[in-house]
Design brief:
This protein is of the alpha+beta class and 354 residues long. Helices cover 39% and strands 23% of the residues.
């Protein structure tokens, strides 16, 4: 709507300017005609024309001066910013810009081991905690250096984009992953990039870096970072495969429950579920066995299940089922590799979900 108002204002100014020129010219020409001798009409036309021309000119000058002043002020302020949240406290930024800048800042300063610069990206409220300095030192001692040079994968926002509270507070919660030297790392980040009434709450409020096993435990709730009562705001967590059995499926970490060696192939499954049916159907269950991953969907009666199937060219293959109840009617099903989900060729999709 703001853009529409700007266009409307420009159109009005342009019309006034054009009308002003027309009136000025007409008044100027009429003053030399005998029929207007001794009359004020030419003078009125010229005066009105000058006023109409002056309005957009004055508006342009005011806007130009405001823009110059604002630019100079912005340049001066930015020269004194010490961290990304300083920008957020002084300027209005978009969600995408805030997200890009804070991810880069955290990873770059952590890679450099620049503790002071890293700390400044957290909210002043957190920085005042007695355990903050010790927690940052512990985090940096465990941090896998090099993540800032890696490509960010599977960015997932855990809250609605550009979430805005009633008092104008803007915050975001997201997860993403990186691959460094063949190892997968998963990051979870929460930050506030606008709070006009409480600037001490602007900045990073939570940042966690985990390896595959630790992230799988976190997603299942079996991790200190997943316990809201512990108020973990900064965590670098690594677990071994001896501690946690986990698998990478579709680019995401899952706790893994081993079952019998899979024998069913993708082609066989495609024929078995092409018309849907139930996951507890004996013919299907005998081929799949027990699920390796079970997921109860939040705020829903639906369940998700992952099964390992026969590998292809030595690479593991999986199948994901979404059901309307525990082992109930199949809503959709997709094949998965460790790195992606084949959404283009579903095994089955209920028409209601297409």
């Amino acid at each position: 709507m703001t853009f529409v108002y700007i266009l409307l204002a420009i159109a009005v100014m342009a019309i006034l300017f054009i009308l002003g020129i027309i009136l000025l010219i007409r008044g100027f020409l009429k003053r030399y005609l005998a029929e207007y001798a001794g009359k004020n009409t030419p003078k009125v036309l010229m005066t009105t024309g000058i006023v109409f021309i002056s309005l957009p000119v004055i508006a342009f000058v005011v806007i130009a001066l405001w823009s110059i002043t604002s630019s100079v002020s912005t340049i001066y302020n930015r020269a004194h910013y010490q961290c990304i949240p300083d920008v957020w406290r002084k300027e209005t930024v978009s969600q995408s810009r805030a997200e890009e800048e804070i991810i880069k800042a955290l990873l770059v300063y952590a890679d450099k081991g620049d503790k002071e610069a890293f700390e400044k990206n957290f909210t002043p409220e957190l920085q005042k905690r007695k355990d903050f300095d010790k927690t940052v030192s512990q985090f940096l001692s465990l941090y896998p250096v090099g993540l800032s040079r890696c490509r960010i994968n599977d960015k997932l926002r855990l809250e609605p984009v550009n979430k805005v509270s009633e008092d104008g507070v803007k915050s975001e919660s997201l997860s993403f992953s990186c691959v460094l030297d063949g190892a997968w790392y998963f990051m979870y980040l929460n930050y506030c990039y606008r709070n006009p009434d409480e600037p001490d709450k602007v900045g990073v409020t939570n940042f966690m870096v985990m390896n595959l096993e630790a992230a799988a435990a976190y997603r299942s709730g079996a991790s200190p970072g997943a316990d809201p009562q512990k108020h973990v705001y900064l965590l670098c967590d690594f677990k071994s495969s001896r501690e946690v059995d986990a698998r990478l499926i579709g680019g995401r970490p899952y706790l893994w429950f081993p079952t019998d060696t899979p024998t069913v192939t993708a082609d066989e499954l495609r024929g078995l579920v092409k018309n849907g049916g139930r996951l507890d159907d004996p013919a299907l269950k005998s081929r799949l066995g027990e699920p390796n991953v079970g997921i109860k969907q939040n705020d829903s009666a639906e369940y998700g299940y992952i099964y390992e199937i026969a590998s292809e060219n030595g690479e593991p293959r999986y199948v994901y089922f979404q059901t309307d109840a525990e082992f109930g009617r199949i809503l959709w099903s997709y094949l998965c590799t460790p790195y992606e989900v084949d959404y283009d060729k579903p095994l089955f999709e209920d028409k209601a979900y297409r």
